[in-house]
Amino acid sequence: xxxxxxxxxxxLLPLLDAQSPVCANLTAEPITNATLDQIxxxxxxxxxxxxxxxxxxxxxxxxxxxxxxxxxxxxxxxLLREYLTIGDKCVYNSSYLKVQRENGTxxxxxxxxxxFADLLLTKDPKIFMFGFALKDEQNKGxxxxxxxxxxxxxxxxxxxxxxxxIGMQKSEISYTDAKKVKARRTxxxxxxxxxxxxxxxxxxxxPVFKRLSPCRDx
Length: 218
Fold this sequence. Notes:
The chain is α+β, with helices and mostly antiparallel strands. It has helices at about 1-20, 20-25, 35-40, 55-60, 155-165, 180, 200-205; strands at about 40-50, 60-70, 75-85, 90-100, 105-110, 115-120, 125-130, 140-145, 175.
């Protein structure tokens, strides 16, 4: 009985995938000059989910991030300038991504080896995703980018569907949040009575927020 139920459930998977245009389009297409022009400019890193432990740990340290892509059509390279808010610091990195046009991938040296990512475009030119080792259960992952820090419900739905398509759960997603970078205490302090010493935040039971320094364009 259990086996027949499992077989029936598995038989529905192709139908579910066919009903989702996101799943159908979750394949890297050859990269053209027009593709490079589409991803050129400023982008914001919004969210990601990784089974790879190193990628997963790294993504969870990023509070906010934006970057610039400057493709070179002749050399098949993309100049990457990224600004990451990690902890209370702004970290700036500059590097090059190699473009593998026929495979629809880009690559970069990280963690001692060349890492490849599928460039996944959608019908919305204001968003794109990178797919990592999507056929490798232990290392697969997906990252999501938009051209603005604010994300619409429809754009986020596309990413959530893509996460489901690759067999991961929405609970595994790590989100950035620019609001955390600007966190501050807004509650007005209680007025002290005459002769009363000021109390520390920890004594008063209030949370202490440390104002972080968000990255700004150089």
